[in-house]
Amino acid sequence: MAPPILKLDDIFLSFGGTPLLAGAALQVEPGDKICLVGRNGSGKSTLLKIAAGMVEAQSGEVFRHPASTVRYLEQAPDFAGYATVQAYAEAGLGPGDDPYRVTYLLSHLGLTGEENPQDLSGGEARRAALARVMAPEPDILLLDEPTNHLDLPTIEWLEGELQKTRSALVLISHDRRFLEKVSTATVWLDRGTSRRLDRGFGHFEAWRDQVLEAEELEQHKLGKAIEREEHWLRYGVTARRKRNMRRLGALQDLRSQYRGHKGPQGTVQATVSDAQESGKLVIEADKITKAYGERIIVAPFSIRVHRGDCIGLVGPNGAGKTTLLKMLTGQIEPDTGTVKLGTNLEIATLDQKREDLNPEDTLAHYLTDGRGENLLVNGEQRHVTGYMKEFLFQPEQARTPIKNLSGGERARLMLARILSRPTNLLILDEPTNDLDIETLDLLQEIVAGFPGTVILVSHDRDFLDRTVTSTIAPANPEEPDGRWIEYAGGYSDMMVQRKGALEEKKKAEKADKARAAPAASAEAPKAAKGKLSFKQKFALENLPKEMEKIELQVGKHEAEMADPNLFAKNPNRFAALAAEMEKLRGSLEKMEQEWLELEMLREELEG
């Protein structure tokens, strides 16, 4: 077992009141890929900052190997003194680091490097910071929500980069699919302390539930033990004659332990306020288009949205998802075509930029629209502090300005406001940004069980798979050209259908080439006459067997490369397997082409 290059032990930190961290620990060894999970406000980001040396713990041990390099992904990077994004990213390099890495990373993150840092959006600033910390390939890479504001192709590219990086990783993310693919160990931060599972995030939730069940059982046993001791004190013969002070003291300790136990943080409890049922046809778009100058955002597109549908929009940043969404909901007029909205629509919108929030507003003022202390939820008067508690806000936060909330708390606050109002059409633009996994679970349940209609834009593959009934995506995701296609099912269903369509297209192209070959040789009747040569017949019979052997080899290599620890343990083996896989697939494609051409020739000769 390799010695740790980073170790935090018995970390304590409090800002007054209940300690944020009370005995938390984190140990990182070379090659580790650890995901740090826990509720919003549990101290994940703070623990990461302590690991990076940006925050000092009030007590506990912090060890960083003197020879190791550490990079931390900043949420609000400081661009002061940098004329371009390229200069900012290159400033993160150390002596001997390859400057080409910066150019490579920026291009894959959708930046040229020539941008003025002062003109960047929040998402672009996050991408620039990501390039800066990844470029030097440090010994330890600390990433706090690296996928926020990234589109799906970039998230999938980032997964591949992090899977093969030599850096040890500690990362925080709400994206389940991303955590499952990247992590090999999980640290759960809960009520100030931490627990470690030496398996990836895919195994975390089942393990967490077992831990909480065991904890609940222990509390039940402790309660029964207290009952037995209290019975002895009241009715024991010895106790009536003479108090046993030692046993009485032990009982007091048990009571203190029982009362002092702090259960897991509660879950958000919420339902959508009922609205009048909308018409059966919610939206009908007929051949709508949109262009800005010469750039086509939406080519002729038609869709009928019915009551109860849940539709997801996916695609690269800049493809036009939000524009299409606003056209479908009547916020933007199409250049050509028509959009008809159904009857009795009550629309509620969660905007990805959180523009509906006034940072100077208090939580109570925002939830009640400044109409006192109560709000109407499902026809029932509710006190604002009681309603806030359902979304994990404390009563004392009622007078807190919104500007003091974290990103996750702001998202939760907007969700609380939306769900308090009657609605039958939910519009969710990037609803999963900054939400913790438990709140994501709640949102998923709300969307899946919503009796009305939902249209959402998201880059969260797991969330899409669990909620939507159909997915709208660009016809050409690599180079969006305004054409959009609706696929049945979620993101994974869309990928299967897209892959199937691509394979059918390739087969058709191969068949066309095979048909063209005999036609091109029509001028040589001798060659097109008679039957296959012995060599051609032998190839036609044996190529399928050879292809089957190669497919078996590919399957074995894929199984070996699926081991998440392979790259860390044996990078040379990983590279050799990847090269061999590429070679085998190339051979397989050539064999398939040759067999198809021979089969077409045989049919031509026999026909």
Can you characterise this structure?
With 607 residues, the protein is α/β, with parallel strands linked by helices. The protein folds into 5 domains: 1-69 and 139-153 and 167-199, Rossmann fold; 75-137, no CATH class; 215-260; 281-495, Rossmann fold (3-Layer(aba) Sandwich), CATH 3.40.50.300; 521-606, Helix Hairpins, CATH 1.10.287.380. Helix content is 44%, strand content 19%. A 6-stranded mixed beta sheet has the order 5-6-7-3-8-9, sandwiched between helices. Helix 14 links the parallel strand 17 and strand 18 (453-457).
Blueprint (SSEs and pairs):
Blueprint: E1 6-13, E2 21-28, E3 33-37, H1 44-52, E4 59-64, E5 70-72, H2 85-90, H3 100-108, H4 122-134, E6 140-144, H5 152-164, E7 168-172, H6 176-182, E8 185-190, E9 193-197, H7 204-235, H8 237-241, H9 245-260, E10 281-292, E11 295-306, E12 310-313, H10 321-328, E13 336-341, E14 347-350, H11 363-368, E15 374-377, E16 380-383, H12 384-389, H13 407-420, E17 425-429, H14 437-449, E18 453-457, H15 461-467, E19 470-474, E20 484-488, H16 491-520, H17 525-528, H18 534-561, H19 566-569, H20 571-606
